[in-house]
Structures are given as structure tokens and as C-alpha cells.
Design brief:
mainly alpha; about 0% strand; single chain
Length: about 190
């Protein structure tokens, strides 16, 4: 019953997507989450279709769309096991868990890196705009750009698709678009 609901809500298009959403480790986190700032939709299973709808608005190649869909499925699906202690243990961030999970299915290192670092542009923006730590923000942004390498556009597209959901503030995306060179800015 639950598997039918998951399939109906997430509508896999490929065999790989179907295998991912049938995986019990993936399913374990889908119903985590209550309505909150940034995610008024509550559970992760409600967020994924919002991001997928944004992916569908993009005029992109089939391959780029396939990659964005994979990131979308897993990016927040491990928030239920993330350690939110203080100080933050970044090795226990939900993106790290998402990368480890996705690595069972693919070996595309850049796609795995983007999955892991999908929130990183937001954290960079916070260092610049909220914490007035531009040196640390630039250091973190430089590291992000080095890690995503040739897939910068893919990273940006996912960041935009993910951020234009719920009631998330749009300032981090605008900041990224104004700060980072080499991306093709999209509107939808």
C-alpha cells in the first residue's frame, strides 16, 4: 500500500528511479517532516514533487533532466537521520547520507558530489549575508565551485529548482546568480 502511494506521488520514469523509490532505506525518510519555515509542505514526500515540477519547467537535455531527477529524489530523503547537534558535524549532514545512498546505484562522482553539497550555496550565502564572515564565505564558495567543477550549471539548476519551492527566501539564489561566473541564468 505505501509503495503504491510512493510510486503514485513520485512517478518514476526510469528503471533506476523505480529501484531507488522501492529501496527501504530511501522510503524510511519520505514521511519525515512537519510543516515549517522553508518547507510548509511538511514531509519530504511532499517536497520532491515540487522540485520535480520545477525541473519540468526547464528547457534542458534529456540527460540533464535525468540527473536533476535523481538528485531531487534523494537530496532531502535522509533528513530524518541527520545530526543537528552543535557544533555541527558536517559528516552527518543529510546530503552526506544522500550521497552514500545514491552511490549504491550510480558511480558518477560529480553527480554524487552535487547531491552531497546541494545546500552548500545556501550556507555560503549565510556566511556572507547573515554572519558577516566574507572570508569564510568565499573560502567555502571556492571549495564548492572546485568540487562541482564542470557540472556547475547542473548544481545551479538544482539549487534553483529546490529553492523555488515552499516559502523559501529567494535571496540566496539571486546572490548565487550575481556572484558566480559561468552559469546560464534561467527563469521559470
Amino acid at each position: 500500500m505505501i509503495e503504491n502511494e510512493i510510486e503514485a506521488r513520485l512517478q518514476p520514469e526510469t528503471d533506476l528511479e523505480a529501484r531507488i523509490i522501492a529501496d527501504p532505506d530511501f522510503q524510511a525518510g519520505l514521511f519525515w517532516g512537519t510543516p515549517r519555515y522553508g518547507h510548509p509542505e511538511g514531509p519530504v514526500i511532499n517536497h520532491i514533487p515540487e522540485v520535480l515540477a520545477n525541473v519540468d519547467k526547464l528547457a534542458i537535455s534529456t540527460e540533464m533532466r535525468r540527473k536533476l531527477r535523481l538528485i531531487t529524489y534523494v537530496h532531502d530523503s535522509f533528513k530524518h537521520i541527520e545530526d543537528k547537534g552543535s557544533p555541527r558535524d558536517w559528516s552527518k549532514h543529510h546530503g552526506v547520507y544522500a550521497r552514500k545512498f545514491l552511490a549504491k546505484y550510480i558511480d558518477d562522482k560529480l553527480l554524487l558530489t552535487i547531491t552531497e553539497m546541494h545546500d552548500e550555496a545556501y550556507y555560503c550565502w549565510r556566511l556572507f549575508a547573515l554572519y558577516n564572515r566574507p572570508e569564510k564565505g568565499q573560502e567555502r564558495l571556492d571549495y564548492l565551485l572546485e568540487q562541482v567543477g564542470t557540472e556547475l550549471q547542473l548544481f545551479y539548476l538544482f539549487f534553483k529548482c529546490d529553492t523555488q519551492t515552499g516559502d523559501k527566501i529567494q535571496t540566496p539564489v539571486r546572490w548565487f546568480e550575481q556572484t558566480v561566473k559561468g552559469i546560464e541564468i534561467v527563469q521559470f
